[in-house]
Design goal:
Blueprint (H helix, E strand, L loop, with lengths): L1 H14 L2 H20 L12 H25 L2 H15 L8 H15 L7 H12 L5 H13 L1
Helix pairs in contact: 1-2, 2-3, 2-4, 3-4, 5-6, 5-7, 6-7
Length: about 150
């Protein structure tokens, strides 16, 4: 992903696409910061896994979504548009999210495997679901579907 990101930064520079360039540089800085934080003390740069890189991209996208909400409440349409443009750039680096049907199928399978039958089993189901679905779907969506399945 880092090679792709570096190539995309170069392409944005050539195209003079300021929004894309700013967003990609910000993402690269966040990834580098994560690499530095993951050092093992030997001074060598840590190599981030795809999963760790996706976590950083998701975090950056979440920050943009939260900013959009705040700017909409404040009536700052100019800043909403800026954040939305950056979010659109970041979405290209995220995998396609699971559809509701796909998510429900995975949750049904986990419930069957764990033998969960009531809300008391929610922690067990959520733990398994989040380890299986990490990076593919928002935790809030998972929690909502699990509650729905265990309550009904």
């Amino acid at each position: 992903m880092l090679d792709q990101l570096t190539d995309n930064i170069k392409d944005a520079m050539r195209a003079k696409d300021k929004v894309r360039l700013r967003t990609l540089r910000s993402l690269l800085a966040a990834l580098k910061k994560k690499q530095i934080a993951a050092r093992d003390g030997s001074g060598d740069e840590a190599v981030l896994s795809e999963q760790e890189m996706l976590t950083v991209v998701r975090k950056e996208a979440k920050q943009r979504r939260e900013s959009i909400e705040q700017f909409e409440e404040a009536g700052r349409d100019d800043l909403v548009q800026k954040e939305q443009a950056e979010l659109n750039v970041l979405k290209a680096y995220l995998p396609d999210p699971l559809t509701d049907d796909e998510l429900e199928a995975v949750i049904d399978e986990i419930i069957a495997d764990t033998g969960a039958s009531s809300m008391a089993d929610m922690g067990q189901v959520m733990g398994t679901a989040m380890s299986k679905l990490r990076g593919k779907v928002d935790g809030g969506r998972v929690q909502q579907v699990v509650k729905q399945k265990l309550a009904g």
